[in-house]
Amino acid sequence: MSTKRTFIAIKIKVSGNLTDFFHKVQAELKRSSVKWVDIQNLHITLAFLGDTTEIQVTQVSSALDRITELHHAFGFNLQGFGYFGSLQSPRVLWLGVRRGDLLKALRTKLWEELPALGFTAEDRDFSPHLTLGRVREFRDQQRLQDMLGQFKETAFQEVAVEEIIFYESQLNPAGPVYKPIKRFPLRKEEHS
């Protein structure tokens, strides 16, 4: 039985401040070995499903149809630069999410449905963030410390969430290719 490697995410359409910062952080940490996310692929993962059968793809799509019918479009801010790991050995460089309550609520709703379809949620709490890069080898401790001080509270971009995307991730030597399986629009606000 063939499977696809899948995940559910919100695509980030990058603009001004975020584009500038992304190029700056890459230049500042260039002595380190970091696998940067392609700027066209920036997203916030709501659920990583992994190997997914064709039947599960259909079931997940049905669940996403039901969930997105109930949720209105919303927004949040990308704010603050940080890392997971230690300052001496960071593993992931990220931007934080502010006003992320609706994002968390959407993810909670997803995980109310996904276990019945054969998927297991991660043990750790959901901490919404935008991954910029994964660190392989780190040599820029002072530069990272300076950038953390400078950009810890910086607001980079407001994100309008109008759809959820169910993706297939194809692993290639040049890096992953994310192909939308289906897009699920959220309800628009009704104006009277």
Description:
This protein is an alpha+beta fold and 192 residues long. It has a single domain (3-185), classed as Cyclic phosphodiesterase (Cyclic Phosphodiesterase, Chain: A, Alpha-Beta Complex), CATH 3.90.1140.10. The chain is built from four helices and nine strands, in the order E-H-E-E-H-E-E-H-E-H-E-E-E. The protein has helices at 16-28, 54-70, 101-113, 141-151, and strands at 3-11, 33-36, 43-53, 74-85, 90-98, 129-137, 155-161, 163-170, 177-185. It starts with a strand and ends in a 7-residue tail after the last strand.
Give me a quick take on this structure.
By secondary structure, this protein is an alpha+beta fold. Helix content is 28%, strand content 41%. It has one domain (3-185): Cyclic Phosphodiesterase, Chain: A (Alpha-Beta Complex).
